[in-house]
Amino acid sequence: MLPLPDVIEYSPEELPTEFGGSAFAALRAPCAETAPGPIVEVLQPSHAAVLPSSDLLLLARFKELMAAHGWPVQIARMMFDRVYAFERIALARICQDDTLQAMALELFKSCEREQQRRLLDAH
What we know:
With about 120 residues, this protein is mainly alpha-helical. It has helices at about 30-35, 55-70, 75-80, 80-95, 100-120.
């Protein structure tokens, strides 16, 4: 039978300096407190809807048509992630399908109206 090794437990203050900057070092503060804020606010998902909920049926049809062309669409992301929504709308605009192009234009206009409404509500 092998002898058991001696286990030495250190508190963060007693931690040897050679481990101070390694992955084995204890965290001195929770990550949430030390993490910087978003660098680019515009690219961060927000809780404000990009599209109004009245566009859900249009989004469902848009998702079906995009899938037919091999481009997946996540409705929840379309609703709340502006960058993703505009990326999907741009893909639809370059497609050769006239129906899909018209839907993309309608969704884009809806996004713009929703943004204008939010700006007016904020003032």
